[in-house]
């Protein structure tokens, strides 16, 4: 038999669709030239011909016909008598071409070639996968949840490649079910036991940046630039944007009419509050905008120490600090300044408190509104009243009041 069908004999050929044909042909050629060197000592007088479309392979040996008794190199020359046994019309000085039956190599050699081929294809597939995702780092992709484990999620992309979403890269409120599609950004490509491992992330700032790019055409077109993003995943994010076109309001474009553009992103990020601010090189103005939604009265900036003392009215202090200090922490990261919050005109650091609006994920809105109706707009203003006073002044049930106090007290106990 002078040829062999690669698709039948080398099953791994079927799994190599993502490897380009020239590379595939080179691998096949290298594998069989190795066989030739082992059997004949050299592959110089052999041509390995691969038909990539049909999967056929032929090995052709060519030697120069010389007078009998004048064969100096058996690999490159053949005697006249031996040549005419193959074809009677041959003459001295002509080239003799003959096909090599692959089964002449022996069953063991063919099996070894098959294993070598499979190994080389496997390595190529790994390299192709690694290179593919290395060029996609920072891109957002959608993949199907295949397996949910305690420390990570296994996802499958459209080509059947395995992707990993570690617990540390998941939003705390994330919940995954097998078979559903989820979106994430490609964070990095690791090598584990010489195998590429694609790591995804839903907590990276790049994930929010790509979501904004999808929802806001002006960002995609380059008319609006995202200068910086800081996040406390699932809790709050701050995005500084700048427009290169004076006719475009960057904040309004990102938020959309009645929040139409930002709402989809907020849902994707499990109700993460997103503050979009207009970037400026004026540090004082940038700090003022970064502390949104609080309104600043005045501030003192130490440029050398990268520190700023911010003064606010008492009812704005809790807004500036935010729940668990998230708002002020993100503002510091966004501006690059260490921020100290003080009551206006007193110069004394404000006792830690939290605006009731920050608890909207645990306390129903109507309950918060009822508490605000009696003048309680911060956590401590509620805790400073007894259960009896709250029951008497509001329309809340005793059980509701107790649950509210438990949620609010837990915030300060954690401190």
From TrEMBL:
SUPFAM superfamilies: Nucleic acid-binding proteins (SSF50249), Prokaryotic type KH domain (KH-domain type II) (SSF54814), Transcription factor NusA, N-terminal domain (SSF69705)
Chief location category: cytoplasm
Gene3D superfamilies tied to this protein: 3.30.300.20, Nucleic acid-binding proteins, NusA, N-terminal domain
Domain K Homology, residue spans: 233-306, 307-391
InterPro entries attached to this UniProt entry: KH_dom, KH_dom-like_a/b, KH_NusA_2nd, KH_sf_prok-type, NA-bd_OB-fold, NusA_N_sf, TF_NusA, TF_NusA_bacterial
Subcellular localization(s) per the UniProt record: Cytoplasm
Domain of life: Bacteria
Function in brief: Participates in both transcription termination and antitermination.
Quaternary structure and interacting proteins, as annotated: Monomer. Binds directly to the core enzyme of the DNA-dependent RNA polymerase and to nascent RNA.
Protein name (record): Transcription termination/antitermination protein NusA
Gene: nusA
């Amino acid at each position: 038999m002078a040829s062999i069908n690669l698709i039948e004999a080398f099953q791994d050929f079927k799994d190599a669709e993502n490897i380009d044909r020239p590379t595939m042909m080179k691998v096949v050629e290298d594998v069989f030239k190795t066989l030739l060197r082992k059997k004949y000592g050299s592959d110089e007088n052999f041509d390995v011909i691969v038909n990539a479309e049909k999967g056929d392979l032929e090995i052709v040996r060519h030697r120069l016909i010389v007078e009998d008794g004048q064969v100096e190199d058996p690999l490159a020359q053949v005697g006249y008598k031996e040549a005419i046994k193959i074809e009677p019309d041959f003459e001295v000085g002509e080239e003799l071409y003959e096909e090599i039956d692959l089964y002449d190599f022996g069953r063991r050699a063919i099996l070894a070639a098959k294993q070598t081929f499979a190994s080389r294809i496997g390595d190529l597939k790994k390299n192709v996968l690694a290179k593919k995702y290395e060029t996609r780092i920072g891109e957002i992709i959608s993949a199907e949840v295949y397996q949910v484990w305690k420390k990570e999620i296994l996802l499958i992309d459209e080509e059947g490649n395995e992707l990993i979403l570690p617990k540390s890269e998941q939003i705390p409120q994330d919940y995954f079910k097998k078979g559903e599609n989820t979106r994430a950004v490609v964070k990095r490509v690791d090598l584990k036991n010489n195998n590429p491992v694609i790591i995804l992330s839903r907590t990276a700032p790049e994930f929010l940046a790509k979501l904004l790019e999808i929802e806001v055409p002006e960002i995609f077109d380059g008319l609006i630039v995202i200068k910086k993003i800081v996040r406390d995943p699932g809790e709050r994010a701050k995005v500084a944007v700048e427009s290169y076109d004076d006719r475009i309001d960057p904040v309004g474009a990102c938020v959309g009419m009645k929040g139409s553009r930002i709402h989809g992103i907020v849902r994707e990020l499990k109700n993460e509050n997103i503050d979009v601010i207009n970037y400026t090189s004026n540090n004082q103005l940038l700090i003022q905008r970064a502390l949104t939604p609080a309104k600043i009265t005045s501030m003192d900036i130490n440029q050398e120490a990268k520190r700023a003392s911010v003064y606010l009215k008492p009812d704005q202090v809790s807004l500036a600090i935010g729940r668990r200090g998230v708002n002020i922490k993100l503002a510091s990261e966004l501006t690059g300044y260490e921020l100290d919050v003080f009551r206006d005109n007193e110069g004394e650091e404000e006792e830690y408190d939290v605006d009731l609006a920050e608890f909207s994920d645990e306390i129903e809105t109507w309950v918060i509104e009822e508490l605000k109706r009696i003048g309680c707009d911060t956590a401590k203003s509620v805790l400073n009243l007894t259960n009896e006073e709250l029951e008497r002044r509001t329309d809340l049930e005793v059980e509701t009041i107790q649950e509210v106090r438990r949620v609010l007290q837990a915030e300060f106990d954690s401190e």
